[in-house]
Amino acid sequence: MARHETTPAAPTSVIHDIGYQRYEGTRLGRAHAVRALYASSLRSAFGLGRSAKAKFLPFGILGLLSLIGAVFALVRQLTGEGGGPTYYLGIPSNVGLLLIIFLAVVAPEMVSRDLGNKTLPLYFSRPIRRSDYALAKLAALITAVFAVLAAPLVIMFLGAALQSGIGLDGLWDEWREFSLGVFNAAFYAVLLSALSLLVACATGRRAFAAGGIVAVFLVSTPVASAGMEIGTGNARDLAGLASPFSLLGGVQEWVFDEGIEVGHFGPLYGLVALLLVAGCAGLFIQRYRKVTA
Fold first, then answer.
1. What are the φ and ψ backbone dihedral angles of 143, each rounded to 5 degrees?
2. How far apart are the first and last CA of the chain?
3. Rounded to whole angstroms, what are the CA distances from 92 to 108, 153, 184, 185?
4. Contacts by residues 171-176 (CB-CB < 8 Å, ≥ 24 positions apart)
5. What is the pLDDT of residues 175-206, one digit of tens each?
6. pLDDT at 290
7. What would the DSSP string read from start to end of the chain?
8. Are 30 and 136 in contact (CB under 8 A)?
9. Contact 266, 250 (CB under 8 A)
10. 254 vs 262: CA distance, rounded Å
11. Cα 82 from Cα 166, distance rounded (Å)
């Protein structure tokens, strides 16, 4: 029987030149990527570059806090009274509910969206590290919270500076009180941001993350308040450790001599606050080391 040899089929694959070219520009590197991620996260905190719906709550809260600052400044102008130590230091605790709403909206927007949409592998491909991602998000939220807290302080200071008859000595005293208020706002921004991001990164669903943040603050605050009301002696002074806001109030009392009564436990409040920030930041970074990329 005759054997028939078959010839191999001609190749059918064709390479088309569609104009793609290799990138020959400057490689900006890891530092630039981290800065870009920080800037992008800060913009997303206020809904910039997105729809008007995304801007409503962040800018609404910023506007409300600015309005509160304007009212304080106007009342001071009308009464002619001095501000006093609590004039600036009392702002973060007085607007605590608005801060909770802001954190519940912004923190999930920063981290839960990436987790839910599974876009983290795009970030971690190169050149940033996982810790870079976490620290950029944390820095962006701290900046956003500090901005909304500083807005009423600036308005209040400008109102005081424009008050007739304040004089250079009075202006210097006012600047000193304002500076203490700014430092205090920074304390609040760092601790509340670290805690909120740790809660938010636990889930990719923004609604669950927002609910978790609200629950942490709204459940712990009444517990601490009840302990300070019904407790006696050292138990009353230590009850403030149960809530982030009362914890910060204790640190404020220890550092600025204006806050909640903590007796001689001021250094303990400062240590707990420091450990809480470090612990939340460390766990937040560790969370992204375990994410599959």
1. -60, -45
2. 60
3. 21, 10, 8, 6
4. 174/83
5. 999 999 999 999 999 999 999 999 998 887 88
6. 75
7. ----PPPPPPP-------------S---HHHHHHHHHHHHHHHHHTTTTS-HHHHHHHHHHHHHHHHHHHHHHHHHHHH-----THHHHTHHHHTHHHHHHHHHHHHHHHHHHHHHHT-HHHHHSSS--HHHHHHHHHHHHHHHHHHHHHHHHHHHHHHHHTSTT-HHHHHHHHHHHHHHHHHHHHHHHHHHHHHHHHHHTT-S-HHHHHHHHHHHHHHHHHHHHHHHHH--HHHHHHGGGGSHHHHHHHHHHHHHS-SS--TT-HHHHHHHHHHHHHHHHHHHHHHHHSS--
8. no
9. yes
10. 8
11. 10
Whether the CB-CB separation of 273 and 191 falls below 8 Å is answered with yes
In the block, tokens 């304007």 appear at 70
What would the two tokens of residue 273 be? 């606050």
Cα dihedral 132, 135, 140, 146, rounded to 10, equals: -160
**Could you identify the residue written with the tokens 């088309």?**
16
Q: What is the pLDDT of residues 59-100, one digit of tens each?
A: 999 999 999 999 998 888 887 776 666 788 989 988 999 999
Exposed, middle or buried by CB within 10 Å (0-12, 13-18, 19+), for 151?
buried
Q: Which two tokens stand for residue 215?
A: 């629950």
CB proximity list for 73: less than 8 A, separation 6 or greater: 155, 156, 158, 159, 160
- Residue whose token pair is 């304080």: 72
